[in-house]
Amino acid sequence: MLETVDELKKLQPIVMKQLQMIFEKGRIAHAYIFEGEKGTGKKEIAKFFIKLMLCLNPSKNVPCETCRNCKRVESGNHPNVLHIEPDGQYIKVEQIRDLISTMTKTGLEEGRKIYVIHQADKMNVAASNTLLKFLEEPDGQVTAILLTEQYQSILPTIQSRCQHIKFSNIPKEFLIQQLQEHGLTFSMASTVSQVTNSVEKGLALAQDEQFALARKTVLKLVETVRKNVNEALLIVYDEWLPNVKEKSDLELSLDLLLLAYRDIVAIKANPESPCTYPDMIQTWKEIALSSTFEQLSNQMQAILQARQNIGRNMNRTLLMEQLMLKLQEGYSFV
């Protein structure tokens, strides 16, 4: 979990500056949509912003973390802060009616009332229309924060009444650091950071035996195909094909293969380039020295073509045989 303001600033520097400026200028809007992929810190930054709005002793646009309000927001016990999550597949109209009813009760404390709608794109039509009326005519000092990964799925009429805060993807270096703090090696963290932008998904991938096997097989193939295409084909038959049961498995394996050749191109251009496979740098340098940019480009094109052919339901064995021959051709004139 991200705990400190500094970590949140590293994760989303633009969003944090935006929200702190809004607070500093006293221009808190009545509704926001926080849009960003999973793992981009929407929940954590929403909590930061709520604390900032309710904090009794904010300093330099940062909540104090020690006052009664900050502590209650942190523990989820502030009576003026409500959270709505989907009930099953959707957020239902009854949930929004209950929310509005609670927000308009006099039993709440003085001051700003805040509600957070998680996965706001999951509101059904009736729920969206009910919320819309409340957004148009909020009762007193009320701020809404809608969290979503699917901005386009929210009613345009709701979008137009909210300030849109766009969260960027996590910087790769920050993601790698977070994954390492959860116990991943630098090499595995570097690899999964190219496949997902989420710490949670990255950790799940790293613990997935099938992913580890796919990674290992890809690296073996890159080393082998330049020396002996028949040996590479044996790896395809014995290790690659048995591991790709689903179409998505084959797509991921080809993506990992493409990333290996992209590493080699990057190292050829600049030996200090960051890599998807830092544990292979020495091998990549050797391959880079014995390859031209044109050859590497042709090899990457062959992988991209193979990936396209998956969608055409081409026989997997034939697809991989053709790919190995094309990858080996890249070394024919070295």
From TrEMBL:
One of its GO terms (biological process) is DNA-templated DNA replication. Its EC number is 2.7.7.7. Residues 243-328 form the DNA polymerase III delta subunit C-terminal domain. Gene3D superfamilies: 1.20.272.10, P-loop containing nucleotide triphosphate hydrolases. It catalyses: DNA(n) + a 2'-deoxyribonucleoside 5'-triphosphate = DNA(n+1) + diphosphate. Pfam families: DNA_pol3_delta2, DNApol3-delta_C. One of its GO terms (molecular function) is DNA-directed DNA polymerase activity. GO terms for cellular component: DNA polymerase III complex. Keywords: DNA replication, DNA-directed DNA polymerase, Nucleotidyltransferase, Transferase. SUPFAM superfamilies: P-loop containing nucleoside triphosphate hydrolases (SSF52540), post-AAA+ oligomerization domain-like (SSF48019). This is DNA polymerase III subunit delta'. It comes from Ureibacillus thermophilus. The gene is holB.
